[in-house]
Design goal:
Blueprint lengths: L1 H47 L2 H8 L2 E25 L4 E27 L2 H10 L1 E5 L2 E6 L2 E4 L3 E5 L2 E24 L5
Antiparallel strand pairs: 1-2, 2-7, 3-7, 4-5, 4-7, 6-7
Length: about 190
C-alpha cells in the first residue's frame, strides 16, 4: 500500500513539473509574441511620424500596446504591450482594456504609444496602472494605413498618448475609458 502511495505522489509531482515546464514555454512564447507585436507597432509609429523616434530616444521610458475591439452602442477592446524603462533597461508586460458607450459602431485594431516625460510618470504607470477617459472617435484604416481620429496624440498624466488605427472602421461619438495594468502572468 505504501509503495502505491509513494508512486502516486511521485507521479503527481512529475505531472506538476511537466505542467510548470509547459507553462514556462507557453509564458516565453507569449512574451515573445507581445515583444514582436510591440516592436512592429513601434516601427509603424516611426514610419507614420518620424519625429517620434527622437522623442522616444530622449524620453525616460515608453509603452507600446496593440489592441482589438468591437462596438455597437456599447463597445470594448483589449490588448497587451510593454512598458520600457530606459534607466533600468527593464521591460514590464502590461495589459489594457477599454469600455465605451454612445452612438458608435465598428471593429478596429489599434496601436497605442505612450512617451513618458518624467521617470515618475513611467513608475506610476507601471506600479499603479492608469485609467484614462476619452471622447468621440471617427477613424478608419486598412492595410496598416489609418485616417481620421484613429491617428493622433493627446497629453495625459505627464506622457504623450499616440494612437494609430491598423485595420477596421470606427465611427460615432462615445464616452470611453481605458485602463492599463501589469500583466501578472507574463512578468
Amino acid at each position: 500500500m505504501r509503495f502505491r502511495t509513494v508512486l502516486a505522489l511521485f507521479a503527481t509531482a512529475l505531472a506538476f513539473c511537466a505542467t510548470g515546464t509547459a507553462w514556462s514555454a507557453d509564458k516565453a512564447s507569449k512574451q515573445a509574441e507581445v515583444r514582436k507585436a510591440t516592436a512592429a507597432a513601434l516601427e509603424k509609429f516611426y514610419k507614420a511620424e518620424p519625429k517620434l523616434k527622437s522623442e522616444v530616444a530622449k524620453a525616460p521610458g515608453y509603452a507600446v500596446f496593440t489592441s482589438f475591439g468591437m462596438s455597437f452602442l456599447i463597445g470594448g477592446s483589449g490588448g497587451s504591450g510593454i512598458a520600457h524603462d530606459k534607466a533600468t533597461k527593464k521591460d514590464t508586460f502590461m495589459s489594457m482594456a477599454q469600455a465605451s458607450a454612445g452612438v458608435q459602431a465598428g471593429i478596429a485594431q489599434n496601436d497605442v504609444l505612450l512617451v513618458f516625460k518624467t521617470e515618475k510618470a513611467l513608475k506610476d504607470f507601471v506600479d499603479k496602472g492608469w485609467e484614462v477617459g476619452a471622447g468621440a472617435t471617427v477613424s478608419g484604416g486598412a492595410g496598416g494605413k489609418s485616417a481620421g481620429g484613429g491617428g493622433g496624440e493627446e497629453f495625459v498624466n505627464d506622457a504623450i498618448y499616440y494612437t494609430l488605427t491598423k485595420r477596421g472602421l470606427e465611427i460615432g461619438g462615445a464616452v470611453a475609458g481605458t485602463k492599463f495594468w501589469k500583466d501578472k502572468d507574463l512578468n
